[in-house]
Design brief:
The protein is of the alpha/beta class. The protein is built from 20 helices and 14 strands. The strands form 3 sheets. Strands 2-3-4-1-5 form a 5-stranded parallel beta sheet, with helices on one face. Helix 11 crosses helix 14. The longest helix is centred in the middle third of the chain and has 22 residues, at 213-234.
Length: 455
């Protein structure tokens, strides 16, 4: 069984006094249902489970009165012995809650009643064009957690890399000392495997059990097709083809020298006014991450982001690689990345950063300056350059030479290196990206992700 960080987040939520009903959002097949059921069965005497996608008739329970005793009576009639409600001992799981908007409205009444815990999961919550909206969004009555496919650290756990090894890596980062060669070699190998396998739980388990990359690729492409099916099935009629076109253009967008998202690459003559909503649909479905250009390299980053200039990355790098031509997985595992290496490794870092809860930013100016990522780290604005193998950091050095103009004093170069430093540039192996946590930022993200904030 794969170890997930979600288990700790669910535990923190349950242990929070007077906690609200919980909503877990995330793309399809990222492990929401499995994690919730596993947690529920370990922590509650009674688990009442409804899946609105598999059993649309369950929605009838919430079609009338939303008074809690009425809902309990209806569930008991519908499920019989499977619906046992004991105060403080029962959790109600509402799987694929977006298929029953009234069930989400009912969360407000469960919050007021307070006798039972409720967890809802949703794959397409908030996606434009998806069915009916709740009559009343339960503002202030629910806690929302975003769930992602396995991140790189969870992938390491799945492959037998435990806390002692990760602590060794943390110490090497903290003291800026090289990683022991045997460990360095193993981590480089695992990073390339993560790049092609990604973090979809069923796929990771298949890889760990069999190492059959042909089966991994087949499963990945099945998921990609299921995403495309969702676009056709659930989007508004006028948006269906445009959403699919946006999605299928992602490899072409990232193959360009300037990886800025261009609607004209989606389709000749396409414009933002016609396609922006389609791109937003894909983002709201949890499939992609948007990385905004900065007008200036200065904190706060969000305040300096340019809304209409951005790159697009797949949330899961393994799915991105599966969208490329046959043989790409083999090339990556062999280290033969050729011209596409920049796109693959940028998407890999975007995957790692986004699953940490980071917003993504980059910096590009017409003068030729381009920085792959810019982040807040240790209270400062820090440049991050990604090099698949070797490469110079001309843009970073230019910016560092002019702190009076760019307000930056430090840069990190991620590549096929060991730990080292050259003046203001810290060189790290790419696999260390998951350790680049901003202490204050991480604390704030934990508050949000553990559900102490409300939506």
């Amino acid at each position: 069984m794969l170890k997930r960080k979600m288990e700790q987040q669910l535990t923190d939520w349950k242990n929070t006094k007077n906690h609200k009903p919980l909503i877990i959002k995330g793309c399809r097949q990222c492990g929401k249902t499995y994690s919730v059921l596993d947690f529920a069965n370990k922590n509650y005497k009674n688990v009442v489970y409804l899946n609105f996608f598999e059993n649309p008739d369950y929605a009838s329970v919430f079609a009338g009165s939303l008074e809690i005793d009425h809902i309990i009576m209806m569930l008991s009639a519908l499920l019989g012995e499977k619906a046992v409600f004991e105060e403080g001992e029962t959790v109600l799981i509402l799987d694929e809650i977006q298929d029953c908007p009234q069930a989400r409205t009912a969360l407000k009444f469960f919050r007021i009643d307070g006798r039972f815990d409720v967890i809802g999961t949703g794959s397409l919550l908030g996606v434009k064009g998806y069915g009916a909206e709740p009559k009343s969004i339960p503002v202030g009555s629910e806690t929302v957690i975003d769930m992602y496919p396995l991140d790189f650290e969870e992938f390491l756990w799945a492959n037998g890399i435990g806390s002692p090894v990760i602590e060794t890596l943390k110490k090497c980062l903290e003291h800026e000392t090289p990683v022991p060669e045997a460990l360095h070699s193993r981590m480089r190998q695992l990073l390339l495997q993560y790049a092609v396998v990604g973090g979809m739980p069923e796929i990771v388990q298949t890889f760990v059990d069999s190492k059959q990359m042909d089966e991994v690729l087949r499963m990945q492409r099945d998921i990609v097709r299921s995403y495309e099916d969702d676009m056709v099935k659930y989007a508004e009629r006028k948006d269906k083809s445009q959403i699919k076109e946006c999605f299928q253009s992602i490899p072409k967008q990232l193959s360009k020298e300037n990886k800025k998202f261009q609607y004209s690459v989606v389709k000749k003559g396409a414009t933002a006014s016609k396609y922006a909503g389609s791109l937003q649909w894909i983002e709201d479905a949890g499939i992609i991450s948007r990385c905004h250009n900065l007008s200036i390299t200065e904190l706060p980053l969000d305040g300096n982001a340019e809304e209409h200039i951005f790159k697009i990355y797949m949330k899961d790098c393994g799915l991105f690689v599966s969208m490329l031509e046959d043989g790409t997985q083999y090339d990556i595992l062999q280290g033969n990345l050729h011209a596409y290496k920049g796109a693959i490794f940028e998407n890999l870092i975007a995957d790692i950063f986004a699953k940490m809860g980071r917003k993504l930013y980059y910096f590009h100016k017409g003068s030729g300056l381009e920085i792959d990522f810019v982040m807040r780290y240790k209270g400062e604005c820090v440049l991050v350059e990604v090099k698949a193998t070797t490469g110079n950091t001309k843009s970073a050095k230019t910016i560092l030479r002019h702190p009076e103009k760019y307000h930056v004093n430090h840069a990190i170069k991620l590549g096929d290196y060991n730990v080292g430093r050259a003046e203001q540039i810290l060189t790290l192996p790419v696999y260390m990206a998951f350790l680049l946590r901003e202490a204050s930022c991480e604390k704030n993200n934990d508050v949000l992700l553990n559900g102490y904030g409300s939506v």
